[in-house]
Amino acid sequence: MIKRIVVTAALVSLLLCLAYLYSLESSNDRNWYDYYQNTPDATVSEDGKVTLRYLRDFKHDRSGTAQDEWQENVTIDPEDVSRVWFVLSAIEESKYVAHSFLVFELNDGRAISFSIEARREEGEPYSALLGLFRKYDLIYSWGMERDFVGVRLFVFDYQTEMYPLLLDEEQAGKVFVAMARATADMADNPRFYNTLTGNCTNLLAKAINEAVPGRLPYDLSWNLPALSVGYLIEQGFIDSKGADIDAVRANAVINDFTDELMSVNDSALDFSRTLRRLYFEKMGE
């Protein structure tokens, strides 16, 4: 009898907890942390050009301070996207936990980053556990590469890897437009982040499948982003050049470039051009 009462009480508590969680509503209107204070948006014009609103361009240094700048409207022709890069940045020493985002390289040397993140409020730390329980809203962020890569190298010293994806220019442009359309939808219809089902990697994969249908079947790496490099090699998105996964990942690490990138940090364009020069020199290309 006592056991039945305990089980019943536990089930009722669980149902009440779930009812509470699903009564919560996502919003774009909260007291956001500086990086997330503006809600990015995007429009695709009749001629196919994309206008990004609130493109972030923070300049970071090793002290952790940042000079913040927001570009209100930036218009990009998808035909100018020459290459898409996949960036994987460790969050902690784990074989499973990491953050992934894309960088769109343009013909003029600029590089625009796109990142799907848990949108945190002022003073609110990130927790993968709490991210399972509607603790955070989602944000689809756009910014200059020196901002998104720089904060990981200069401030947090996270191991960061970069991979050029095996997409032709037409596919690269389609992925860019797909991410812009997803951003517009998120601006109009805010949703919650979920560590497993609505995170940086699986939402990227779903958006890529909209642009290049059927290319990315579901894999455990959608939920555990640190596994994504091996998966992308298997799916033909990253060229391993016959090397094993450990060698591929070691070659892709860009942390050794930190000092030289810091020296050109006053210019977003110089940052991106220098990063690519150093990357391809390391690759022997």
- Name the assembly state: single chain
What's the number of structural domains? 1
Helix/strand/pairing category? alpha+beta
Order of helices and strands: HEEEEEEEEEHEHHHHHH
Strand element count: 10
Main pleated sheet: 5 strands, antiparallel
Q: Tell me the overall shape.
A: globular
Order of strands, main sheet, comes to 9-8-7-6-10
Work out the strand percent: 15-25%
Mean pLDDT across the residues is 89
Taking pLDDT < 50 over at least 5 consecutive residues as the criterion, the unreliable ranges are 6-23
Radius of gyration of CA atoms, rounded to a whole number:
20 Å
The percent range for helix content is 25-40%
Distance between the termini: 73 Å
Total number of helices: 8
Describe this structure in words.
The strands form three sheets. The chain has a five-stranded antiparallel sheet with strand order 9-8-7-6-10, sandwiched between helices. It has helices at 2-23, 145-155, 169-188, 202-211, 228-234, 245-252, 258-263, 268-282, and strands at 41-44, 50-56, 59-60, 66-67, 70-76, 81-90, 98-106, 111-119, 137-144, 160-164. The protein has one domain (27-282). The protein has 285 residues and is an alpha+beta fold. Helix 3 crosses helix 4 (202-211). The termini are far apart. It has eight helices and ten strands. A hairpin with a 4-residue loop joins strand 7 and strand 8 (111-119). Mean pLDDT is 89; it is low at 6-23.
